[in-house]
Amino acid sequence: MQDQTAEVIWNAGDVPVSVRFDDPYFSLENGLAETRHVFLGGNDLPARFAGGFGIAELGFGTGLNFLTALRAWQEAGAPGRLTFTSFEAYPMTQGDMAKALRCFGELDAAACALLDVWDPACGTFDVAAEVSLKVIAGDARETLPKWTGRADAWFLDGFSPAKNPELWGSKILGEVARHTAPGGTCATYTAAGFVRRGLDAAGFDVTRVPGYGRKRHMTRGVLRP
User: Fold this and answer.
1) Domain count, the chain
2) Where in the sequence is the domain holding 85, given as residue range(s)?
3) Which long-range contacts (CB under 8 A, 24 or more apart) does 18-27 make?
4) What's the pTM?
5) Is position 164 within any domain?
């Protein structure tokens, strides 16, 4: 059972900042726009949505990426259900998550549904009829190798590689590739050279593309056959 919740402080703009990693949970400019640019756009979503589509994520954080993906799935009218699996070492408390999501008014309905069932011990959550959400607590270096699923798209959203190198090493990137469906993709806000090289070594064709806001570049990858 997960026994460590996230320690959070708030900057002047009410953006949550991790005490442990000294890094904000999302863009200081516009977290929702960043998520759409990096994780939806970086994985060619919603164009690739199809019944049974699977998204996996390193770092559930505030739940913003999940809520954004759910909203995109609903708006796309995709058939079947979306499967969303996230790996989180330090889950947020319900109170911190509620405060973090308060500024994203267009996600209110889905955010309320998530908050109503959220438990920082993690597990499987019934948020909407269109989605299956599972958040796996613990160090992803230990939990991801045990996962039996595969994702069509990965959201690689750990804290900055300089401050959270555990989520960006070659071993875990290899596990990401091993748990990616044929033709699957990954995307991340970082363009750090060692991350791009690690993804390439793991089996992804890697491209550096324009980032969001003040970030000049980000990274996307497609699993090689």
Assistant:
1) 1
2) 8-223
3) 18/90, 18/159, 20/90, 21/159, 21/160, 21/163, 21/164, 22/163, 23/159, 23/160, 23/163, 23/164, 25/61, 25/62, 25/64, 25/100, 26/61, 26/62, 26/64, 27/212, 27/213
4) 0.96
5) yes
